[in-house]
Amino acid sequence: MRKVKWGVLGAARIASEKVIPAMQRGEASEIIALASRDSAKAREAAKRLGIARAHGSYEGLLADPDIEAVYNPLPNELHVPWTVRALEAGKHVLCEKPIALDAKEARELIEARDRSGKLVAEAFMVRHHPQWRRAKELVDNGAIGPVHAIQTFFCYRLLDPSNVRNIPPGGGGLYDIGCYAVLTARYVFGAEPARVVGAMDRDPNFGTDRLFSALIEFPAARHLTFTVGTQLAGHQRVTIAGEAGRIEIAIPFNAPPDRPTKILIDSGADLFGGGAKVEEFPICDQYTLQGDAFSRAILNNAKLAYPIEDAIANMRVIDALFRSAKSGSWETP
Fold this sequence. Notes:
The protein is α/β, with parallel strands linked by helices. It folds into 2 domains: 4-125 and 288-302, Rossmann fold, CATH 3.40.50; 130-283 and 316-327, Dihydrodipicolinate Reductase, domain 2, CATH 3.30.360.10. Helix content is 34%, strand content 29%. The chain contains 10 helices and 14 strands. The chain has helices at residues 13-24, 39-49, 58-62, 79-88, 103-106, 108-116, 130-140, 173-189, 286-299, 308-327, and strands spanning 4-9, 29-35, 53-55, 69-72, 92-96, 120-123, 147-157, 195-202, 209-218, 222-229, 231-242, 245-249, 261-266, 276-281. Helix 8 crosses helix 10 (308-327). The radius of gyration is 20 Å and the shape is globular. The mean pLDDT is 97.
């Protein structure tokens, strides 16, 4: 199989430690270039990661005629500007989440995509992991009866003031990890929220949200409740609750690439696990799967399963949550 030739904008930690190594193991993806605004940094990162070309500017990478697709892991406020420029340069683009700072900004990508004729998508790797696909299959097949509630908890402790996650305007927990809670509930329910209410606590020094909790109401009496935090002990868990059972995903978002993952399906027969069974999934890397899925869409001239319109729908919910935290009232996406 021919591999799609990729270039990477920047040497962000997510790219250097997770996405690039994973895509380098892909069947359909080949990373041939990396760019940084610092030439020396670009050369060092490219050498360390085994990438053949280093560009001393983002413009240089976009002008490279051999690059077919670009991965954009830049800070959140740079997602739309550089994704638009990459599309205009004739490159397909996989952009890190959240796709933008608000839905209005994100809508610029529809016009840029349509003008360029190139693919553009938000990089939510979780939708490619077998554990989430299986959870969705179980829900759709009625294995735990009609599902009415999802509860999500996702926290880490990060106190470094120089980390982009702690710097406005793109930092904070809702942008960084709350977006996963919203996305996976929309994925499992197969629907868009009707209204939301949220509560937020901002760090007085950083100015970013360090704690965000929300209740999101979907049609047909279905609720998502979640809490995300950037200054709590690391933990993540998702519970999908139905009338005839529940599914628990123990490591729902940072699924390890070096060991099997598991989900628990429990009929609720008792409180001691008498009705529980575990399904285990072989070792895989969700970033490899994500990169290859995008590359195959390019190679096959195919439509994306989750085009940029899906990213905008997720962004509308985040916008409504920020409005609710400010107003103290229910808001409609």
